[in-house]
Amino acid sequence: MNSNWDPLAEKAAPDSVKVFGVELRKGSRVRLWPQKTADIMDMALQGKVAVIEAIEQDFDDQVHLAVVIEDDPGREFGMLRQPGHRFFFSPEEVEPVGVADSGVSQ
């Protein structure tokens, strides 16, 4: 039996993810396209531009992008990881925006 196994040990999330051939990182701008429209937030955020605040990985190795909506008047709260201003999407639910003019190395 391996005594080093710890199911709660943090996994290192990737530094970037590729979406439509573009490498996205913290600070990259994306347009949101929620695949589920089960609640009002999915519908309200559809088509909005957001900034990736973090790339996270869960226990099932699924990657999630924590984003802050670009035109949110409370955007600074999202950057401080406050609830209600930070949202999670899968890489399949976003598209890169402003690759050429974003200032983010892609």
What's the helix and strand layout?
Blueprint: E1 17-19, E2 22-24, E3 29-32, H1 40-45, E4 49-57, E5 63-69, H2 75-79, E6 87-89, E7 94-96
Antiparallel strand pairs: 1-2, 3-4, 3-7, 4-5, 5-6
For the largest sheet, list the strands in their spatial order.
Answer: 6-5-4-3-7
Instruction: Determine the fraction of residues in helical runs and give it as a percent range.
Output: 10-25%
Mean pLDDT reading? 82
Q: What is the 3D form?
A: globular
Structural class: mainly beta
Total helical elements: 2
Note the beta-strand portion.
25-35%
CATH fold-level topology: SH3 type barrels
The second-level CATH architecture is Roll
Poorly predicted runs of 5 or more residues? 101-106
The total of beta strands comes to 7
Described by strand count, sense and barrel closure, the largest sheet is: 5 strands, antiparallel
Rg for CA atoms: 15 Å
Tell me the span between the first and last alpha carbons: 43 Å
* CATH classification class: Mainly Beta
Order of helices and strands: EEEHEEHEE
Provide a brief overview of the structure:
The chain is mostly beta strands and 106 residues long. Helix content is 10%, strand content 30%. The longest helix has 6 residues, at 40-45.
Attribute tags:
106 residues, mainly beta, SH3 type barrels, five-stranded antiparallel sheet, two-stranded antiparallel sheet, 2 helices, 7 strands, 30% strand, disordered C terminus
